[in-house]
Design a protein that fits this description.
Layout: E1 13-18, E2 24-29, E3 33-40, E4 45-52, H1 53-62, H2 65-71, H3 79-107
Length: 108
């Protein structure tokens, strides 16, 4: 499984460690990933994700997984989160249509 954050797309970075004698050694820095579970209220399901700690903090700051998914750029999302985002947008669209129909019926 790739060491990549599912929300931000953050992955490993490579470079050189340079010693005092200027010897270069190739190295690889891995992202700090954690496994986290989130409830998606619009869909009534729980998502288990591998996220960077920065992404976890962002989700907490934005107030949940739904606002974070809607704000994220589509090209950085994993396939699972892209499908979930599309399902959330569809659920919100259907809810908006139902609310408008209810308001129109009440206005008559």
């Amino acid at each position: 499984m790739a060491r990549r954050c599912e929300l931000t797309g953050k992955g490993p970075v490579t470079g050189n460690l340079v010693s005092h004698s200027n010897i270069k050694t190739r190295t690889r820095w891995e992202p700090n990933l954690v496994r986290k579970r989130y409830l998606v209220p619009e869909l009534g399901q729980v998502l288990t994700l591998r996220l960077s700690t920065e992404a976890v903090k962002t989700i907490d700051k934005l107030g949940g997984i739904t606002p974070a998914l809607l704000k994220a750029k589509a090209e950085k999302l994993s396939e699972q989160l892209l499908n979930t985002r599309n399902r959330i947008m569809g659920a919100r669209r259907r809810q908006g249509d139902a609310d408008r129909a209810k308001a129109a019926a009440a206005a008559k």
